[in-house]
Structures are given as structure tokens and as C-alpha cells.
Amino acid sequence: MTQLSLCLLGKLQISEVVNSMKDLMDCSQETGKGPMEEQWFGRG
Q1: What pLDDT is stored for residue 39 in this prediction?
Q2: CA torsion sign, 21 to 27 to 31 to 32?
Q3: Where would a tag sit more exposed on the chain, N or C end, judged by fewer CB atoms within 10 A?
Q4: What's the pLDDT tens digit per position in 1-44?
Q5: Number of independent structural domains in the chain
Q6: Are 25 and 35 in contact (CB under 8 A)?
Q7: C-alpha distances in Å from residue 11, one per residue of 15, 17, 24, 41, 44
Q8: So what's the pLDDT on residue 33?
Q9: Which of left, alpha, beta for 14 (phi over 0: left; psi -120 to 50: alpha)?
């Protein structure tokens, strides 16, 4: 892989983590549970 490919891959991975955290925060606000409660006990 070229250096540019590795850089783009790293940025895509960071983007995925940020999007996952945003989804978790949105869900936490909707349910009134904290992020750790959502992670451990599910959305039900």
C-alpha cells in the first residue's frame, strides 16, 4: 500500500469511530440512559 492509501484508511477508520460515538450519544439522549448503560444493557 502506498502512504496515501494508509492515510486514507486511517481517516476512514477514525470517521467510523466518530459516527459510532455520535449514534451512541443520540440513542442515549433519546432513551435517557448513559452511554455505558446502552452498551451493557442494550436498547430494550
Answers
A1: 61
A2: positive
A3: C
A4: 788 899 999 999 999 999 999 988 888 888 888 767 756 665 54
A5: 1
A6: yes
A7: 6, 10, 20, 30, 33
A8: 80
A9: alpha
Which cell is 29 given?
439522549
In a domain, 10, yes or no: no
Cα radius of gyration (the chain): 15
> C-alpha grid cell for residue 18?
466518530
Residue 19 domain flag: yes
Alpha carbon 17 to its chain's center? 4
3-class SS string, the chain: CCHHHHHHHHHHHHHHHHHHHHHHHHHHHHHCCCHHHHHHHCCC
Residue 22 located in a structural domain: yes
